[in-house]
Write a structure and sequence with these properties.
Layout: H1 3-12, H2 38-48, E1 53-56, E2 62-65, H3 67-73, H4 84-88, H5 91-102, E3 111-115, E4 124-132, E5 144-150, H6 152-189, H7 195-226, E6 234-235, H8 238-255, E7 259-263, E8 272-273, H9 275-292, E9 298-306, E10 309-316, H10 338-344, H11 350-360, E11 364-369, E12 375-381
Parallel strand pairs: 7-9
Antiparallel strand pairs: 1-2, 1-5, 3-4, 4-5, 6-8, 9-10, 10-12, 11-12
Helix pairs in contact: 1-2, 6-7, 7-11, 8-9, 9-11
């Protein structure tokens, strides 16, 4: 049941002694505690609720906002008795409020309203319900209790689901279509094809099978990271993991014309990582460089520590990214250069896996431009408290 409805029922359910019927039992041994006035009851109930609750008078002036509403909508004591339409700053909210005033029968229908919060915080989506309060509530005639249930995360997840389905469908359809075409041609024309054509077609089938297998493996890995895969943490292993992974990737990078440099000398004795998972982080970042770092000739891996934690930086000297793309580079299925990704087999999942695995380590990851040119992934990990050396007597 909606928050506003619960509040109204609680208020309406406070029957006056004169309204009791003769058929109702009159217990003698138990005396009910005296309840305060309706306004205090509303304040107490609304204060317990996690969702924003507002009370507006007949002129739509704000007369009450619970703690959640104050935090979510940036309201304070100075906003009391002000026009709610000016405080909430939402065309949807204003339109909904006016519709309820025109037709009181609409109060119980829920509708979504979007609150414009600016470019830094982003818009928020709320399910809005309202109910008329009785005059006994102490707010005068035609007062409204309005509840706002935050749907922002739900809508975000729905958008991710739609994007996921669309991207997976596309990325699966492409290699499957290619496999079907080459297999059909081999089946129909096998006898008339020469050996070189047969081998070429089989190589195409193998390559697209590998691409399909890689996509499915990435999806499984991303799902595992989402589920919070248990880590086998080990202190003092990070620098060695970075060096070993770089050495393993050297030949693959060289085949793309990329040299790799490793300068991992910071003290990692108090940093705990899962070696296998952090190797996957490093591989995914390096593979991203191979696919998208246009014009890059060098990749450099460095580590350093400061007051914020232990930092791993993997940078290249390629063309970098447009400014607008840095914020989205870790989104699932996001590819800065889709045509290049299709040619090189990129799925757009690799850096999403990086983000999830870094978060599972308690760290943060971000993408930053390199001056004068290039792109860097910076990972910051927490550092365990260093033991205090014992005092020598």
């Amino acid at each position: 049941m909606a928050v506003a409805g619960l509040v109204a029922i609680a208020l309406r359910g406070r029957r006056r002694p004169s309204e009791a019927t003769d058929t109702e039992p009159k217990p003698e041994a138990v005396v009910a505690p005296r309840v305060g006035n309706s306004r205090e009851t509303l304040f107490a109930l609304a204060g317990l609720l996690p969702d924003p609750v507002l009370v507006l008078d007949a002129r739509d002036r704000l007369v009450f906002a619970n703690e959640s509403a104050r935090e979510s909508l940036s309201l304070g004591d100075a906003d009391m008795d002000e026009d709610a339409a000016l405080l909430i700053r939402s065309a949807d909210f204003i339109e909904r409020l006016r519709a309820i005033r025109r037709d009181p029968g609409m109060v119980r229908a829920e509708s979504e309203v979007v609150l414009r919060r600016g470019p830094r915080t982003g818009d928020r989506v709320f399910g809005m319900r309202a109910t008329t309060l009785p005059e006994s509530a102490g707010f005068g005639p035609a007062a409204l209790a309005v509840s706002l249930i935050d749907h922002t995360r739900l809508r975000h997840l729905e958008r991710l689901r739609r994007e996921f389905v669309a991207n997976v469908s596309h990325d699966l359809r492409t290699p499957v279509t290619i496999l079907k075409g080459y297999a059909q041609t081999l089946t129909e024309d096998f006898e008339v094809m020469d050996d070189s054509d047969r081998l070429r077609f089989l190589e195409k089938i193998r390559r697209n099978t590998d691409r399909l297998h890689g996509l499915l493996e990435s999806m499984v890995e991303l799902a595992a990271a989402d589920d919070g895969t248990e880590l086998s943490l080990k202190a003092g292993a990070l620098n060695a993991v970075l060096r070993d992974t770089a050495e393993m990737m050297t030949d693959r990078l060289a085949a793309r014309g990329l040299a790799i440099e490793v300068a991992c000398d910071a003290d990692d004795a108090f940093v705990e990582v899962d070696p296998m998972r952090f190797a996957r982080i490093t591989i995914n970042v390096l593979e991203n460089v191979m696919r998208y770092a246009t014009g890059a000739t060098r990749v450099r891996i460095t580590t350093y520590a400061d007051a914020e934690g232990f930092h791993v930086r993997i940078e290249d000297d390629g063309a970098g990214l447009p400014d607008a793309e840095y914020a989205r580079i870790f989104d699932r299925f996001y590819r800065a250069e889709k045509s290049r990704a299709q040619t090189l087999g990129g799925s757009g999942i690799g850096l999403a896996i990086v983000k999830n695995l870094v978060l599972s380590h308690g760290g943060v990851v971000r993408a930053v431009p390199v001056v004068p040119k290039g792109f860097a992934v910076e990972i910051t990990l927490p550092v365990a408290a260093r033991p205090v050396p014992a005092l020598v007597a």
